[in-house]
Design a protein that fits this description.
The complex is a heterodimer of chains A (260) and B (405). Chain A has 260 residues and is an alpha/beta fold. Chain A has a single domain, classed as Rossmann fold, CATH 3.40.50. Helix content of chain A is 36%, strand content 26%. Chain A is built from 10 helices and 10 strands. In chain A, the strands form 2 sheets. Chain A has a 6-stranded mixed sheet with strand order 6-7-8-3-9-10, with helices on both faces. In chain A, a hairpin with a 2-residue loop joins strand 1 and strand 2. The longest helix of chain A is centred in the C-terminal third of the chain and has 16 residues. Chain A is globular. In chain A, 45% of the residues are buried. Chain B is elongated and about 105 Å long. A 6-stranded mixed beta barrel of chain B has the order 4-5-10-7-9-8. Chain B contains 13 helices and 12 strands. At the A-B interface, helix 3 and helix 4 of A face helix 1, helix 10, helix 11 and helix 13 of B.
């Protein structure tokens, strides 16, 4: 499902090409310039952290990146497709096929089992019933929750819920996983564990874009893009990303069962 | 999105809120069962009225003598002495639309048999009377043309009279004294029950009209002429033929009013049927108000549901649901609720109607039409009242929906 060979086989390594992206909202009579000309390229297999204070435009950028919103001007080419001019239904198809979302508040359907939550994107695709279940189980195994597939969200800890959400993001074999403050609702140890999962996925070749305002969390990413006032202020390669596995070793043990 | 997947999503969503789904359906359940029960009661009433009217006999016309007009003071119907045996014979001879005819006279009085007595009416009739009234003989015989010609002292008892005067033995061959005239009982009529006015039709003695006229009343004219048209469509024709014939025979000038009147059972039947039809429509429309309220209940809950599930809608959109997928899902949820409610309502309505007819002894008729009607109605309500909330859900912006608290 997530074969590195498959990724390398594609000729164009640039997964995302963004050129002079502008987004202007109209709040009543006032024009709000959320993005003032952003250009960016991302290659396959990158693990990028987007940082910035609130109001810096990073959320707007994330929404456009996630095809939930359309830019006012500029172009956005995702996996060879110019998505800046697509209709709502076409964007929905792109989200379904090429993007996986992980949110701060997990955003799982309540009173719905983990496996049904993971299956959700497949309901809007073309997968058959049998295929659907097999893929959902595979995705849950990938995040280490294969034994909890029939638990409900209220029977799972925060870290486990976020892992269900990650499995849901992965189930459709997306080009990019977009994570919006994925550790915002988690304690520090669980945060590191979740980052560990992202690093593992990244090692398997999955492109990850992480939005965060916590510098500690950003340390796990390979590239730091900082937003300010609707523009990219800095864009650096992090040559020495922390490894979650190493950090965990130095952290005090928390009884996982108690947390659950 | 495949329709099967939408169905899965809709069923899961309804299952997640069993109590709310049930309460929403309750409106439709009550509405549909009320419509079915009310239609069943109304149609039951219609049926029993039709039964009673047809017990009068079908295609029957009754000719009464007209009212007497003495110096501007008008007596009631039947106060004049205009109908005669000759009129009767003329109608039989000259009106082709008339198939059966029976002259009628009447006497009332005390009837004595052994040591028992009973006050009842004696109807003098012709031999066609039973066929016109669709009546039958339970045992014994009816009188013959010979009896009528001879004014024979014979009679046939209605069931009520037979039970009152001869509680134990068969009355056949025994004698009853009507106004001191001894008459031999030759038969007993079958039970006919009450007429549309609630009178006991079995409290009667039938005798040849000649016997009543010449031995009991000494009244030389006829009280009525009972006529049966050859078919229902012949009723107006027969009425016209009789009117023309009697006007000519009674020498009535062109602009003078008739000195007789013809009453038509079909008119009575139509009026009574129309009344019960109005009753049925009234009951059904009251019940359908509750169906409407049930529909509004669905819309209400679906609107609440859309607001409550805004975040769910956002999640669905973020993983690739298109507007029309969301629209279809919510529409199907509403449709499933109203359909399930409709089916349960039909079962309850049919069960309730059966219970009403068992407990209250009120005839109820559940027709296929009423089931179809309420079923169709609940589908229509599901679509109609489900559409607005579904549209509202589909129009949500995914970003706002995801951020909704």
């Amino acid at each position: 499902m997530i074969g590195q060979e498959h990724r390398e086989a594609e000729t164009d390594a640039r997964l995302i090409r963004i050129d002079h992206l502008v987004k202007t909202y109209l709040l009543g009579e006032v024009e709000v310039h959320a993005l003032r000309g952003v250009s960016l390229e991302l290659r396959r297999g990158e693990f990028a952290a987007i940082m910035g204070a609130s109001g810096s435009g990073k959320s707007t950028f994330m929404n456009i990146l996630g095809c939930l919103d359309k830019p006012t001007r500029g172009s956005y080419i995702l996996d060879g497709v110019d998505v800046s001019g697509l209709s709502g239904d076409e964007l929905a198809r792109i989200r379904n096929a090429k993007l996986g979302f992980v949110f701060q508040g997990f955003n799982l359907l309540s009173r719905t089992s983990a496996i049904e939550n993971v299956e959700l994107p497949l309901l809007y695709g073309t997968a058959s019933l049998k295929d659907r279940e097999a893929r959902a189980v595979k995705a849950l195994n990938l995040v280490g929750l294969g034994d909890r597939s029939h638990h409900y969200p209220n029977q799972l800890s925060g870290g486990q819920q976020q892992r269900v959400a990650i499995a849901r993001a992965l189930v459709n074999d997306p080009s990019i996983v977009l994570a919006d403050e994925p550790t915002g609702n988690l304690d520090s140890r669980t945060s590191v564990e979740v980052m560990g999962i992202f690093q593992e996925l990244n090692n398997k070749g999955i492109t990850i874009i992480l939005v965060t305002h916590e510098p500690d969390i950003a340390q796990f990413a390979n590239r730091h893009i900082v937003f300010r006032d609707g523009k990219i202020r800095s864009d650096k390669i992090n040559t020495t990303p922390k490894r979650a596995a190493d950090v965990l070793k130095d952290m005090p043990e928390i009884d996982e069962e108690e947390a659950a | 999105m495949k329709i099967a997947n939408i169905l899965i999503s809709a069923f899961r969503a309804l299952q997640r809120n069993k109590m709310r789904s049930f309460l929403t359906m309750l409106g439709i359940i009550i509405g549909v069962s009320a419509v079915i029960a009310m239609l069943a009661i109304g149609q039951g009433a219609q049926y029993s009225v039709e039964q009673q009217i047809s017990s009068l006999g079908t295609n029957v016309l009754i000719v009464y003598p007209g009212s007497q007009n003495t110096g501007g003071i008008r007596g009631g119907a039947g106060t004049t002495t205009t109908l005669t045996e000759e009129d009767c014979l003329a109608i039989q001879r000259e009106c082709p639309a008339v198939s059966l005819i029976s002259p009628g006279t009447r006497a009332g009085g005390q009837v004595i048999a052994g040591n028992l007595n009973w006050a009842t009416g004696v109807e003098g009739t012709g031999t066609d009377y039973l066929e016109i009234r669709k009546w039958g003989i339970e045992y014994g015989d009816f009188y013959t043309d010979q009896d009528v010609k001879a004014a024979a002292k014979v009679c046939v008892l209605g069931k009520t009279v037979a039970d009152a005067l001869f509680p134990e033995a068969s009355p056949i061959g025994l004698t009853v004294r009507i106004r001191n005239v001894p008459c031999k009982v030759i038969g007993v009529l079958t039970k006919k029950g009450q007429n549309a006015m609630g009178q006991d039709q079995d409290d009667v003695i039938l005798a040849p009209w000649t016997t009543v006229q010449r031995r009991l009343t000494w009244f030389p004219y006829l009280r009525q002429i009972l006529v049966s048209a050859a078919s229902a469509s012949n009723i107006p024709v027969a009425q016209k033929q009789i009117t023309e014939l009697l006007r000519m025979r009674h020498k009535i000038a062109p602009y003078d009013p008739d000195d007789f009147s013809i009453r038509n059972q079909a008119d009575l039947a139509t009026a009574a049927t129309a009344t019960t039809q109005i009753l049925t429509i009234l009951l059904a429309s009251i019940a359908s108000v509750s169906l409407l309220v049930g529909g509004i209940g669905i819309m209400n809950i679906m609107l609440v549901s859309v607001t409550e599930r805004t975040r769910e809608i956002g999640i669905r959109m973020s993983v690739g649901a298109r507007s029309r997928d969301i629209l279809t899902q919510f529409l199907i949820e509403a449709l499933v609720l109203s359909l399930l409610g409709g089916i349960i309502g039909i079962l309850l309505g049919v069960g309730g109607s059966t219970l009403i007819s068992k407990l209250a002894k009120w005839p109820t008729i559940v027709t296929f039409f009423s089931i179809l009607l309420s079923f169709g109605f609940s589908i229509a309500i599901g679509i109609f009242f489900g559409f607005y909330p579904a549209k509202k859900a589909a129009m949500l912006n995914p970003i706002d929906a995801l951020r909704y608290e």
